Amino acid sequence: MSKTVSVVENIMSANDRLAAKNKERLDAAGVVAINLMASPGAGKTSLITRTVEALRDDLAIGAVDGDVATTIDADRIAASGIPAVQINTGGACHLDAVMLQEALPQLPLDELDLLIVENVGNLVCPASFDLGVHRSVLIASVPEGDDKPYKYPVMYRGVDAVILNKIDVLDAFDFDIDYFRRGVEALNPGLTFLSLSCKTGEGFEAWLTWLREETS
Amino acid sequence: MSKTVSVVENIMSANDRLAAKNKERLDAAGVVAINLMASPGAGKTSLITRTVEALRDDLAIGAVDGDVATTIDADRIAASGIPAVQINTGGACHLDAVMLQEALPQLPLDELDLLIVENVGNLVCPASFDLGVHRSVLIASVPEGDDKPYKYPVMYRGVDAVILNKIDVLDAFDFDIDYFRRGVEALNPGLTFLSLSCKTGEGFEAWLTWLREETS
After folding, report:
1. Is the Cβ of A88 closer than 8 Å to some Cβ of chain B?
2. What is the value of pTM for the model shown?
3. What is the CATH number of the domain that holds A182?
4. Which residues of A touch B157 (CB under 8 A)?
5. Range of A108's domain?
6. Do the chains contact at B121 and A123, CB–CB below 8 Å?
7. Which residues, 6 or more positions from B17, have their beta carbon under 8 angstroms from its beta carbon?
8. Max intra-chain CA distance, chain B
9. Is the pLDDT of residue A2 over 50?
10. Which end of chain A is more exposed for a tag (fewer CB within 10 A), N or C?
11. How many angstroms separate the CA atoms of A65 and A74, rounded?
């Protein structure tokens, strides 16, 4: 038992050391990086492509896309015309600092203002692995239900902003925004809370404003 | 590196041995057990409570409910009047055989026909841990998007049935059922494919028929 624990501790501290190196590298290039996390299907890729569309004249954006298999998301992001690197985790349930370290040299970092790292769709594991980025953002979505902050507290506790996506379908679901938001803010007082629809664009301007402020 | 791999192998084979013991125990009690897996918010708990409502006169059902925190789901299931045991994984991203082994003695196994094990909401990790149950069922849901079999193939490959839930909101989403189903069946030919709505009850009868057949 003690051997297993010590192996896990070594892996975690190695990850933290590499995360610190990633941050140094990003800082040296003047890039602000964001770790974007969510359940499968909450809208990570849609948020990225719509953000690129809206900000392509203001900010030079790059993306790193983590997936357990396939290049579906990376292809969608590359189609929006920005530099995008795919990390195939080979089945692993989260990105870690070494994966990001290997992806960074494949991007023109010196030309970028903002790097969005799309993590694996998973509401548990990505919370435990520091990547060395500057901000963490969690996308929740209306169809997942309003109890998610209560049921997955670690993820909600560790992020700088929570985006509630798919508000265009609020009427079709029993979703109590006040209950959801109380859960989020009890875990994480003072975070940025945004609600929007990547499909209709409702509420999207507040997200762009937050991004502009974080990268200015 | 080889030490880490050997530790992981030992953990996995220990899990498999305990899974075999769980199956022996379930068989001895004449209980058919199902591992229910899904993304967060796909409808695992709703499927269980509606199933209990529909079958309470035909089958004696028990439940084991795995969550990383809180008893929200176990409380919902217990409110439906069946024996339910909560497993709080303490942050872990999946159930494993030892967790189920510890839960089984808390249930009146000899009186049950069917045991439904609700896994942690996660489309990656639960696929790797055999629990010793008889069937595995994956719930997908329309709002997650039709590309999920392509993006999370390991989970889709290992199950006996896939249930597509929330078909009542098909019109509100760009979801191509044929594309989804082709993805599922390419990975897992011959599995049972069902589409239904836990909210409206549409398509639910076919799921009940499948359950009756599996437990007869």
Report:
1. no
2. 0.92
3. 3.40.50.300
4. none
5. 2-215
6. yes
7. B97
8. 54
9. no
10. N
11. 6
Q: How far apart are CA A158 and CA A188, in angstroms?
A: 8
- A177 to chain B, closest Cα gap in Å: 15
Sheet holding B32-38, edge to edge: B84-88, B61-67, B114-118, B32-38, B135-141, B161-165, B192-195
**Number of folded domains that form chain A:** 1
E-assigned strands of chain A?
A: 32-38, 61-67, 84-88, 114-118, 135-141, 161-165, 192-195
Quote the CA–CA distance of A35 and B34 in Å, as a whole number: 35
B143: nearest CA in chain A?
A: A143
Convert B125-146 to b/e letters by CB count within 10 Å (16 or more is b): bbbebbbbbbbbbbbbbbbbbb
Joined together, the tokens standing for residue B69 give: 């925190």
| Mean pLDDT, rounded, of chain A | 94
Contacts across the A-B interface (CB distance below 8 Å): 121
Tell me, what amino acid is at B134? H
- Give per-residue pLDDT as tens, B88-134: 998 899 999 999 999 999 999 999 999 999 999 999 999 999 999 99
Average pLDDT value for residue range B64-83: 91
Quick check: B186 contacting A, CB < 8 Å? Answer: no
What's the ipTM? 0.90
Q: Which residues contact B75 (CB under 8 A, 6 or more apart)?
A: none
Q: If you measure CA to CA, which chain B residue comes closest to A70?
A: B151
Nearest CA in chain B to A169: B172
With 0-12 CB in 10 A as exposed, 13-18 as middle and 19+ as buried, what is B189?
exposed
pLDDT for residue A6: 61
Judged by CB atoms closer than 8 Å, whether chains meet at B141 and A145 is answered as no
A73 in contact with chain B, both atoms CB, cutoff 8 A? yes
CA distance A132 to B120: 28
- Position A214, amino acid: E
